[in-house]
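quick one: nicotinamide-adenine-dinucleotide bound model?
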Amino acid sequence: MNIGRDSMTKLINGKEIAQNLRNELKNEINNLRSKTGKVPGLAVVQVGNVAASSVYVKAKTKSAKEVGIDVIDHHLPEKTTEKELLEVVDTLNNQNNVNGILVQLPLPKHINEQVVLDSIHHDKDADGFHPLNVGKLSVASHNDENLLIPCTPYGCLIMLKGLGINLSGKDAVIIGRSNIVGKPMAQLLLKESCTVTIAHSKTQNLKEVCSNADIVVAAVGRPEMVKGSWIKNGAVVIDVGINRIEINVNGEKKNKLVGDVDFVEAEKNASAITPVPFGVGPMTIACLLRNTMIAFKNAQKI
Ligand code: NAD
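yep, here:
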């Protein structure tokens, strides 16, 4: 099956789509404020000072405030014990002005991440990682408006739907089976009636598996692993990977962000493709804000 290729490959602009989504959220939050006198609250918990985490927390906080979400910031010292962190989460679970709780990963090694993530009340699970929400996603027959869905795959789905193609019956190959991207992506595309294949590190003949796909979602974490020749003519490519590589510019070593797909070559075959950066990345944050608003609406029974 061929999705149909225009004369030019469409570059899927995640930055712009995420901005549109944030504008919609801002309007909706404004309306909710008029209706209820309240706004959604997002608690952002960071433990320690990992530089990348600080960058993510700053970006999430800024975006949340921009759309009118109230941010409750908890920056805890590196030496915080698991028990102390669980107490903070417990307090937030019981705080009425907190609708979403985000614990930034990674946590220091002496804290069990899964224990902490599972302690977040499932109604306040802004990331959509709680086993109950994972279960709801897998049993729901369609993408129910009040589900809390993992942000990155949901962002990918919004981008795919934005292309205006009929997803039903399409062959989708997802490379990667992580709990945060690959598996929930498969659930979402299954609900759209795609025929879904999940490929992973033990998959044989990955090239062959990909080359029949109408949709390829790459979530591996290996720079430019997916080659252009693996992409069927007219396929849609969503590149989730974020890899920092070192390149040489005029004898000087510089860092560059690349995806899991060899963009330059894949673009020649694809009908539409996401770039890295400014593809999937901005969608993840926008979907986190969306989950916070959904949790608020669920709490207000709207
Ligand atoms: P992960 O390490 O948890 O999972 C990687 C998956 O890739 C595994 O399921 C593994 O089976 C598979 N894999 C590894 N080697 C493979 C191979 N040779 N062939 C086929 N499959 C192979 O990673 P993750 O958390 O799912 O993230 C994947 C990538 O997406 C990373 O680069 C990460 O930085 C990026 N990411 C981006 C965003 C975003 O907002 N854009 C969000 C989450 C993750």
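Residues 1-7 have pLDDT under 50 and may be disordered.
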